[in-house]
Amino acid sequence: AAIGDPAACLVGKQINYDPTRAQDGSLTIAVNAQGNAFGLEWGDLLTAGQRTDTAATNGTSAEFGYDGEDFVLLPGASGDYVSTPDAASLDIVGDLDLRVRVALDDWTPAAESTLIAKYTATGNQRSYALAVTATGALIFRWSEDGTAEKTETSSAVNTFTNGSTHWVRATIDVNNGAADAAVNFYTSEDGSTWTALGAEQLNGATTSIFASTAVLELGSQTGGTVNRLAGKIFRAQVLSGIAGSSVAAPIASASSDTVTDATPLTWTVQGNAYISSHTVHGAQAYLQAFSFAGTD
Question: Whole-model pTM?
């Protein structure tokens, strides 16, 4: 058992403890619990199975995102991703701003994990992509012609706890006015106040972004086959221009079992990826503490 695994949840009390002795000498103890009106429902383990403490003890923390916040669960296997078809509004050739609210199972993943990408090697249709490297840095990839790849990597790495939820962001200024292109990386807890992740990275020359025919996808690139992410994506944004106009704004919605987008774009959940929310387990789970760090 592990923290976060599904667990039966019942708000109630034990009402009896009745031992009976059979003729063969065996002893059977009947224990019953009386629940409230909601009955038995599914929740999430807040300890790794049964645990006994003899004094007040700090346990391993478990963070499940905002109370009731919906997400796309991405197992990290080939074909598990979310996508929307290519559209003219997504073919940004100039300044670009990518933002994703995400919880990686491992913030220093075994392999590079893509957050958002319009980027496929098939037919040399590379535009742009944002990912987390194995060291915990952010990496921004782009191409000027769809074939040759350019990259900039944050000079600092994240210090996030595995499974915790954060905003990450990358911007590119294709012409900073000094005969160069600049890429900046950020993190945030609320999606409004941003903290730089390392120093600004310079390309060495001005640049542009290729207008590819690739789909825009969450959790992978090249149609769910490359640099697959294991974790949860809550929402994302693609802005044309730095802090510019929103051209994609996918948000997971458990109530409609889909990914909505006010821009509007139509998103499809692929493979074994699925929409979830901690509230869909029922009222018992909803009453659980969503950040649990100890017992007393």
Answer: 0.76
